[in-house]
Amino acid sequence: MSLAFARKIRVVTVLFVTSLFLVSALLGTSESSEQNVLRLSLEEAIELAIAESETVMQSGNDITKSGYRRSEAISAALPHVNADVGYNYYPKVQTVDMVMPGAGPISVELKDDFDMTTSVTLEQPIYTFGKIHNAIRAATIAREVSRFSKDAVEREVSYETAKAYITVLLAQEALKIARESYNNAESTRAILDERFAMGRVPKSDGIKAQADVAARVPVLKESESDLDLAMRHLKRLVGAQESQKVILTDALARRFPRYDADAALADMFEIEPRLKLLDRTIDLNAAIAKKEKAQYFPTIGAFANYTLFGQSNNAWIGSKNLQNLGAIGLNIRVPIWNGNKTWAVYQQALIDKANAELSLRRANRDLELELRNAISEYDSMLATYRANQEAVRLSRESFQAQQDSFRAGSKTLTDLNDAEMQLTRNRLNEAVTLYKINSSIASIERLISGGGEKSWKSRVAQ
User: Cα separation of 15 and 5, whole Å?
Assistant: First the structure.
């Protein structure tokens, strides 16, 4: 085999290995890039946002905390066992001088230098006139309130995420319209060049065509910026990285459910967690008020005590120097006067209950008004959207007709530009109206969405 042929083989081998390396690198880069893409439906975005929300996490911690508070309240009804150990040394012990017959006076110490006392006490409440019962009931209701609070927080996070999601969709549509408007202006300039292919384009028409293209650049840049801001907000909600590419798999809803105001209100009063929260808050404050009122009454309890005691420096547990004493009995603690504290605390609890009732009444009225306004706006936007669709259809036909006439030389550059701008405005109006419709759907479903047939997915799919 000649030397030249061997060199050719080496060169071919090196090229082949290099090609394999490049292909592997490109495939690896493509795979890595694909793994860095996050595809999100609206439902998936909401699930991620709830999982990432610090507020939802705090609400979950509050539920756990309320469970411990209930355990604390229950502990008051259970036996309490305490042990006390005391070992004392008396550097100076009092003495008594005594005169004994047939002997001189002597001094007698009243006690030894050391003593020890050890006791175990068991206490059990027997009857507290509602103090413990209402404390446990209040803690149980407080845990329910915490759950409703978490449900309300999750609903707010879902609503905020839905708004962010459809805002990104609107920004994408606005950017698409801006790009097509820019392309239309470029096409107009190209048609102008075609008309004067055999001659020189009039200076005024050439400048105007360039100006029409340049005028669309700021709108295009602003649309890109709006999309970037909207996408950044959505990424923050779902916990995506700043550098991660997010692709939205859902579009703005074009199937529009029908809402009956009376039926929607019935669903809201049945489902809305904020109303349930306020309703149970009234019960919570009522239980607290009963607990505080019970402070006026006695507390009856039983106790048992066993004590070891002795006076000696060798008085240790297990030694013969200790004596023992046991006791079993009942005790009754009767409150007589505590500076009016019980009355003041009880009045505060009654005011808290009254305020909770007022809050529920206000919430019922506010949410009813909010729901009726949202449905009214939704119905109005549906009519506006139909008008927008007709306006887009007509302006698109007008633009195409103007474009054909301009190409034939029977229309001016100004006529064509005006027709294109009108088409762009109508398309933007249509997109904004569709966004408002979807936003209204989100606002309504935030108040009435439940499970099964009452879920937002079921209504939008109809």
Answer: 15
